[in-house]
Specification:
The protein has 4 domains: 32-192, no CATH class; 198-282, no CATH class; 284-399, Phosphorylase Kinase, domain 1 (2-Layer Sandwich); 402-611, Orthogonal Bundle (Transferase(Phosphotransferase), domain 1), CATH 1.10.510.10. The protein is globular, with a radius of gyration of 27 Å. 40% of the residues are buried. The chain contains 9 helices and 32 strands. The strands form 7 sheets. An 8-stranded antiparallel beta sheet has the order 21-14-22-23-24-25-27-26. Strands 4-5-2-13-12-9-10 form a 7-stranded antiparallel beta sheet. Strands 1-3-6-7-8-11 form a 6-stranded antiparallel beta sheet, with helices on one face. The protein is of the alpha+beta class and 618 residues long.
């Protein structure tokens, strides 16, 4: 297994305000037909197996005449469903069915105020949780809403009374039927369905492969296949076992058999049964749970959403993401790189529910931004994106056989934190990344997180830019996301960021690559003799808060602005040591010009490199 290089990066995500601004542009309003007179409870409607195979996750029934839902795309359809006990006068019920495709991180509901209704408009976001069947409801309305679980069955039936959710708050909603009311007026019912579980295809290991067991698995109809609190040895136990049958003379080799309490058998054939065993992953995160050389079979409502992913070697892991190589059944290029955004903070196990919910929302938004920002980019020095899956917050990218410039023991000295490459490497990195950024800026996009950790490099391939999770358009408001050591001086007070900020960030990165400064991010490390760290979002607050020292000693009166100014003075000192007679170092000086209007552009850098024919070694 490849060595895993821990990251020390301190990337800051989008702020909650920025998340809301980005979601505003995605809302579409569609008028829906009358269905408010239907009285059949959503729990009583039969969801057929074909509906589950389509990936349907939510059934929606508006209870008012004026209704709208979003987004207006193919993932919403009217369905006519029969009740478990049909009423002759109403044999079928019409509901809106919402499918989660591989591109959907959430589902938005907007209910405008009716002309004859004494209530305000409602706006709620339902975020899909990649690690469970639950959804996270985010109240974006201007007024409180009341949530009530109206399911009469299920694991939490009868334990949820009416709960008020004030604007800006979130709540985790388990599968079942829920009602939204405002001022005691019911406005919407919706039923959350369990998602289809992924399957783990595990290589057989001989004698121990005949039995596969799990706990607390709930199938798509809400019925438990087996329970975790019963004994496998009790003859009357309701525990159901999943067995891969071997040669036992019954002619059922190569199948999964679900054994129920009444000894009823449901058999499912295994693909390639001689080499693998198949295990359901009903909850948790399939792509984070599979081990090396195991395969996850991902279900989908359409052919593109259904695939198999075989994990190979772990590349890196942090609290925010896991990166590994894999083989994807729909990608013919062979080995790819998979990046999975994590939504559970393993360090802060005591995090409050609201913090956990917001982490899911934040990571989902980062996934969407990275996917949308990178899907149309085609440049030899930018990692190619093959696709992604919102259901797992995963991105499937070209595999670059090279480590990032921050990798300790590869491009960074573990003792001094200095870059260990040569001038040849420095020139190649500047040429490749300047070309990539020039291309990005021509697309009217900003990367917003240029730093050594986001540049992959090998002497065979050259430098390749990655991680577009904080990318924005040039027309978007300036973001407070990123990594503080690479934020330009014009952000203080003016809050300016644009293509020129990417130029500045590359200039700071090149100071490290030219060995003028140690790895900047190491300054935030606990125990560093010159520890320095601040939050980007604090730079423009009216009253600077107590600095984030991560437990380090030092004056708590030091503001974020003061700390950044201290850092900028160190950057200026390193800049002064650059040799102006050296063409490459001269260009880096121009990239670190304080005034963004006078700062060199990536187009100019490329022009100068080509004009002087500066190649590695010159």
């Amino acid at each position: 297994m490849a060595e895993v290089f821990p990251s020390e990066e301190k990337t800051e995500p989008f702020t909650p305000e920025e998340l809301q601004q980005r979601l505003l542009g995605s809302i579409q309003v569609d008028e829906v037909e009358d269905a408010h007179q239907d009285t059949v409870p959503l729990d009583n409607l039969v969801v057929e197996e074909d509906h589950h195979k389509q990936g349907i996750r939510i059934l929606v029934r508006p209870l008012t005449r004026n209704r709208s839902v979003s987004p207006g795309s193919d993932n919403i359809q009217w369905l006519a469903l029969r009740a478990e006990v049909a009423d002759p006068s109403q044999p079928m019920s019409r509901v809106l069915a919402v499918t989660q495709t591989s591109k959907d991180i959430n589902f938005s509901i907007r209910i405008p105020q009716g002309d004859d209704e004494n209530r305000p408009p409602i706006w709620c976001e339902l975020y899909y949780n990649p690690v469970s069947d639950s959804l996270i409801l985010f109240n974006k309305s201007d007024v409180p809403i009341v949530l009530a679980r109206i399911s009469q069955s299920g694991p939490v039936a009868g334990v949820n009374s009416d709960q008020e959710l004030v604007p800006g708050n979130t709540k985790d909603l388990s599968p079942g039927t829920w009602r939204i009311s405002v001022y005691t007026v019911p406005v919407l019912d919706f039923r959350i369905l369990e998602k289809r579980p992924a399957m783990r295809l595990v290589p057989r290991d001989g004698a121990n492969s005949s039995m596969i067991s799990s706990s607390d698995v709930v199938n798509s109809f809400g019925k438990r296949s087996f329970l975790s609190d019963a004994s496998d040895n009790e003859p009357d136990s309701p525990v159901a076992e999943k067995k891969v049958r071997k040669d036992d003379g019954d002619g059922k080799d190569g199948v999964i058999i679900f054994m129920g309490p009444e000894d009823k058998q449901l058999m499912f054939p295994l693909p390639n049964a001689a080499k693998t065993k198949e295990v359901a992953i009903p909850n948790g995160h399939a792509l984070l749970e599979i081990q090396q050389d195991e395969t996850a079979a991902i279900p989908g409502g359409c052919e593109l959403d259904e695939y198999q992913l075989t994990k190979r070697e772990q590349i890196a892991t942090t609290g925010a993401s896991s990166v590994f190589t894999a083989e994807h059944s729909n990608v013919s290029e062979g080995v790819i790189t998979v990046k999975v955004l994590k939504t559970r903070n393993s360090i802060a196990s005591d995090a409050r529910p609201q913090e956990t919910h917001r982490n899911v929302i934040r990571q989902a938004d980062i996934w969407l931004r990275e996917y949308q920002s990178q899907e149309d980019l085609r440049h030899e020095s930018i990692v190619r994106l093959y696709g992604g899956d919102a259901r797992y917050l995963s991105l499937y990218m070209e595999h670059v056989d090279g480590k990032d410039l921050a990798a300790r023991g590869v491009w960074r000295d573990g003792a001094t934190d200095l870059f260990v490459g040569s001038r040849h490497d420095a020139v190649r990195i500047l040429r490749d990344i300047a070309g990539a950024l020039h291309y990005v800026h021509q697309k009217r996009k900003i990367h917003n997180d240029i730093k050594p950790a986001n540049i992959l490099y090998s002497r065979d391939r050259g430098a390749v830019l990655c991680d577009f999770g904080l990318s924005t358009r040039t027309t978007d408001p300036a973001t407070s996301g990123g990594t503080p050591y690479y934020v330009p001086p014009e952000f203080i007070g003016q809050k300016l960021r644009g293509p020129a900020s990417d130029v500045w960030a590359l200039g700071v990165t090149m100071l490290y690559v030219l060995r003028k400064i140690p790895f900047p991010d190491a300054r935030g490390r606990q125990g560093h003799p010159k520890q320095l760290y601040w939050m980007i979002a604090d730079l423009n607050r009216k009253t600077p808060p107590v600095p984030h020292n991560h437990g380090h000693t030092g004056s708590r009166a030091t503001s974020a602005v003061h700390q950044m100014q201290q850092w900028l003075s160190e950057v200026n000192e390193a800049k002064a040591r650059l040799n102006q007679r050296d063409r490459v170092e001269y260009l880096v000086r121009q990239m670190l010009t304080p005034n963004p209007n006078q700062r060199i552009t990536m187009e100019k850098v490329m022009s100068e490199l080509l004009k002087e024919n500066i190649a590695p070694g010159k």
